[in-house]
């Protein structure tokens, strides 16, 4: 991939003097969905697929961006003195947002850059291509300009830029999983205080298989912000009767005791998902640490049911992929992953069953939905790096 990027960089920008090549992974969340902005636990891991970037420093203030994934757009130009979100800037709003967020932290970027990106994360899949670009950009800025920021800082800067520059009210999970990724480990992260531990993901004789529904969704215009608002209102109602900072502070029993304080039945369902999913995530990690893969798979299944029935973020595409996965031989567990409304599912599948799983689920999906899903058997990878 490095040679491919350098060759394309030379083609686009004329030469490769001073160019360095970098990588930031994508991520998948194994369990703990829509808990990250509700003060709960998540359990994501970095993947071996992600975003590659070639970059060099310029002597002026100009910014030039090129994506091999959107080569029809050509070079998109900007400069350090006009770091504002613009519709016509398209995907470049993500790296520009990170530059803006660095400057907001008092980390002034001294000169412009030529940047070329190439991602092998399916676009719009829910495997966090935007967060991958954000962490990659932060890493590039640190490497070139020597800013004293940790990988955890890179995650927070990426989230800040997505919230405040791109207007997507995302939690911290995506950027954190990418910036802090560790090979063959998932990250058990408490989003309330950012305390975390690495848990080995030893899937003896099994792999993670991502199924991409190919139903495109845009986070900013999805119902994501609506769900956040419903949970915030439910939390405010609960806080009148119980001393909590977030929905993640409650056990299932406490929720059942106090839920009558929530005045709308829809909000009761939303809050129930946040509370129960958080507890499920804690139990799922305990199961994995005890090498009880079957129990972990059951928790994945229960997570999908809750996302479908209580949080209502699945839709026919994701439900079809998961329900067909549950029927297939060799499947330990399957659930939607990411924000929902399209995107991906993640399944734990025994090695010997992967080919038949992909064929069986793929055929059923095509017959019901009318277009194909894409499947990726993936491995758990490291965080960002220089190649």
Q: Can you walk through the features of this model?
A:
The chain is α+β, with helices and mostly antiparallel strands. The protein folds into two domains: 2-201, Ribosomal Protein S5, domain 2, CATH 3.30.230.10; 206-378, GHMP kinase, C-terminal domain (Alpha-Beta Plaits, 2-Layer Sandwich), CATH 3.30.70.890. It contains eleven helices and 13 strands. A six-stranded mixed β-sheet has the order 5-4-6-3-1-13, sandwiched between helices. A four-stranded antiparallel β-sheet has the order 10-11-9-12. The protein is globular and about 60 Å long.
Oligomer: single chain
Number of distinct beta strands: 13
Helical fraction: 40-55%
- Please tell me what the overall shape is: globular
What is the SS-derived class? alpha+beta
Number of domains: 2
Please give the CATH class of the largest domain: Alpha Beta
Distance between the terminal alpha carbons, to the nearest Å?
10 Å
Describe this protein with a few key phrases.
387 residues; alpha+beta; Ribosomal Protein S5, domain 2; Alpha-Beta Plaits; 2 domains; six-stranded mixed beta sheet; four-stranded antiparallel beta sheet; 11 helices; 40% helix; 21% strand; globular
């Amino acid at each position: 991939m490095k040679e491919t990027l350098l060759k394309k960089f030379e083609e686009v920008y004329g030469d490769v003097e001073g160019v360095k090549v970098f990588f930031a992974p994508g991520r998948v969340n194994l369990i703990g969905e829509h808990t990250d902005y509700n003060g709960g636990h998540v359990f994501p891991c970095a993947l071996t697929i992600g975003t590659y970037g070639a970059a060099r420093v310029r002597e002026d203030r100009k910014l030039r961006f090129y994506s091999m994934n959107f080569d029809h757009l050509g070079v998109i130009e900007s400069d350090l003195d006009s770091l504002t979100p613009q519709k016509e800037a398209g995907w470049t709003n993500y790296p520009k947002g990170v530059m803006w967020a660095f400057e907001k932290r008092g980390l002034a970027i001294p000169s412009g850059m030529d940047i070329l990106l190439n991602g092998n994360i399916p676009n719009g899949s829910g495997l966090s291509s935007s967060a991958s670009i954000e962490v990659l950009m932060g890493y590039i800025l640190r490497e070139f300009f020597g800013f004293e920021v940790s990988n955890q800082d890179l995650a927070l800067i990426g989230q800040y830029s997505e919230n405040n520059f791109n207007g997507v009210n995302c939690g911290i999970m995506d950027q954190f999983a990418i910036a802090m990724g560790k090979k063959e480990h998932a990250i058990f992260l408490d989003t309330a205080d950012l305390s975390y531990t690495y848990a080995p993901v030893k899937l003896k004789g099994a792999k993670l298989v991502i199924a991409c529904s190919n139903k495109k969704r845009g986070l900013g215009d999805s119902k994501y912000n609506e769900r956040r608002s419903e949970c915030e209102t439910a939390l405010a109602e609960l806080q009148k009767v119980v001393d909590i900072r977030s929905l993640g502070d409650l056990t299932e029993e406490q929720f059942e005791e106090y839920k009558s304080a929530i005045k709308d039945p829809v909000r009761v369902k939303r809050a129930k998902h946040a509370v129960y999913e958080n507890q499920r995530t804690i139990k799922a990690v305990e199961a994995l640490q005890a090498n009880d893969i079957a129990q972990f798979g059951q928790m994945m299944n229960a997570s999908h049911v809750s996302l479908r029935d209580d949080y209502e973020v699945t839709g026919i595409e994701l439900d079809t992929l998961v329900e067909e996965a549950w029927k297939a031989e060799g499947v330990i567990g399957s659930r939607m992953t990411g924000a929902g409304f399209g995107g991906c599912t993640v399944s734990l599948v025994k090695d010997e069953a992967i080919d038949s799983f992909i064929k069986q689920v793929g055929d059923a999906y095509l017959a019901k939905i009318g277009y194909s899903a894409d499947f990726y058997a993936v491995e758990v990878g490291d965080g960002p790096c220089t190649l």
